[in-house]
Amino acid sequence: MNKSPKIVLLLLFMLISGTLTAQKWGYVDTEYILNKHPDYKIVQEELKKLSDAWKNEAQSLDKEIQEMYSQLKAEEVLLTEEMYQTRLQDIKKKEEEARAFTSRIFGIDGQYYQKQAELMQPLQSKIYDALERVSRRNNLGMVYDKAASATGIIWTDPRHDYSEFVLDELGIEDNN
């Protein structure tokens, strides 16, 4: 009487393992695809311009703070203790503003990363849509991303690389 659940489980396991081995899989290298896509270069240039402008602004804040320290040091002997402490507090306040600016721009959820996500989203959608079409056309059950380190791919057979098919689907020719 106890054998029937074990037999059912064994049959179910055999059925599942049979379907798993029948799946076709492939991989793509999204980093390779992105570097070939002309829109990616435009996005990178725009991000670099923004980043450079924000870095310049952060550097000017740092320079201003350094000048405030230099001026305080130069006038230190002429200031009363109260005036000295007031100026020091002003400098500390300016340093806090500079840290807040850097955090607001380059922090975890900063404007730089938000802008990067905003600019990359349409491009990533195009690539994903092309990848989906290639996967359906080639009856792929699974597609790995070689560029993503979390996949754990150590070695791949180039015959399973569908990156060129995705580039073809996007209408991008290899110019190497």
UniProtKB/TrEMBL annotation:
It holds the Pfam family OmpH. Gene3D superfamilies: Skp domain (3.30.910.20). PANTHER family: CHAPERONE PROTEIN SKP (PTHR35089:SF1). InterPro entries: Chaperone_Skp, Skp_dom_sf. One of its GO terms (cellular component) is cytosol. GO terms for molecular function: unfolded protein binding. Residues 44-71 form a coiled coil. Keywords: Coiled coil, Signal. This is Periplasmic chaperone for outer membrane proteins Skp. Belongs to the Skp family. GO terms for biological process: protein stabilization. Residues 1-22 form the signal peptide. Transmembrane segments: none annotated. The lineage of its organism: Bacteria, Pseudomonadati, Bacteroidota, Cytophagia, Cytophagales.
